[in-house]
Design goal:
This protein is an all-alpha fold. Helices cover 75% and strands 0% of the residues. The protein is globular, with a radius of gyration of 21 Å. The mean pLDDT is 90.
């Protein structure tokens, strides 16, 4: 046992909740942002302003999401260069086999592959062959073995959301808003789930409400710790940046979840807010303004199809309230209440 501990220490293999649940998750969120989310933003800009070059760039960026996340995870685990570069193939395999659960599959598989690669790194005179071979082989085999099950779990999560659309609008609004909002912050692709389920219409509006509650909520309630940089990175980027902090103190997740439970049914019952743009926009929230732009695109499409006469002031009011104002106000109020009772402490939401 002593020799094993010495070996793990020499190889910088630290088996801990912080290393895997905080460091790896935080880095993965950055990898996702630098690929899929940036790509989706560019693609939306290209479509709205008729700029094909933006669509082309965005397509390339989005296609590299899984390798980017795997490399980011390897970086967080302080993997040596040969391991780090080999994770490109591992990420591609895990993401492909994982389907809608791709990001979660990448996280789990990349951790095992990276640690396996670190274990053999520089142990032989032919390191340039052995280390990539072990990292890629272990990673791809685990991806083929585990990722489909992880993907199926994500699919069942999507089925649950799909069934919720058949409930009464009030309950549908709560269930979809809360679940999709949670998925957006978790290492699960909420955008992919919405795309696979073709989640649009009233259900898409509820999903948008939940995603905005998470992104805008975390951006506003953590402003004192993260200032303008945090406001932009979370409000226009991704609330997944807070996953590491959520692992440390799960109570910081309560305010945006409660906010989504309120804005969801308001969207479906009071404002009748529908997402009739691309379904993937339902799961993007305010990331690059893709969600609100999707709603606007749906309005234009409905007008062109004769289903809507014009965009009214009530339409704009509904979108602004659901996507921006209510998530900010509600999350901030709930957060302040939790601060007063000591459930949220200073710097609990500070980003590295």
């Amino acid at each position: 046992m002593t020799k094993l501990k010495e070996f793990l220490k020499r190889k910088n293999i630290i088996i801990s909740g912080k290393r895997y649940g905080i460091d790896a998750l935080s880095a993965m969120a950055q990898g996702l942002f630098c690929s899929l989310l940036i790509g989706t933003i560019l693609n939306t800009i290209g479509t709205q302003f008729n700029l094909p070059i933006c669509n082309q760039i965005g397509g390339f960026a989005s296609s590299m999401a899984n390798p980017a996340m795997a490399i980011a995870i390897g970086f967080a685990l302080q993997a040596p260069p040969l391991v780090l570069f080999s994770l490109t193939a591992v990420g591609a395999a895990a993401g492909s086999a994982g389907g809608a659960g791709g990001p979660l599959a990448v996280l789990i598989v990349a951790i095992f592959a990276a640690e396996a690669g670190k274990a053999v790194s520089k142990e032989t005179k032919i390191d340039i062959l052995v280390t990539p071979l072990v990292t890629i082989t272990v990673g791809v085999l685990l991806a083929l073995w585990w990722a489909p099950a992880i993907g199926e779990a994500a699919h069942q999560f999507g089925v649950l959301i799909d069934k919720a659309t058949y409930l009464q609008p009030f309950w549908m609004g709560i269930v979809i808003s809360v679940l999709i909002g949670i998925a957006l912050t978790l290492p699960i692709s909420s955008a992919a789930i919405c795309q696979v389920l073709l989640l649009d219409g009233l259900a898409g509006g509820a999903a948008l409400a939940g995603c905005c509650a998470q992104m805008v909520g975390f951006a506003i309630m953590s402003f004192r710790e993260n200032r303008w940089g945090g406001l932009i990175s979370q409000g226009l980027g991704t609330s997944m940046l807070q996953m590491g902090n959520i692992v440390r103190n799960p109570r910081i997740w309560i305010p945006p979840i409660l906010a989504s439970a309120i804005t969801g049914p308001l969207a479906t019952c009071l404002f009748k807010l529908e997402m009739n743009g691309a379904p993937i926009s339902s799961g993007m929230g305010t990331c690059g303004m893709v969600g609100p732009i999707g709603v606007y695109t749906g309005w234009i499409n409905d007008i062109a199809a004769g289903l809507k006469v014009s965009v009214t002031a009530f339409d704009w009011l509904a979108l602004i309230l659901i996507a921006f104002i209510l998530p900010a106000v509600l999350s901030l109020v709930f957060a302040e209440l939790l601060r007063k009772i000591g459930w949220i402490k200073p710097n609990d939401m500070k980003l590295d």
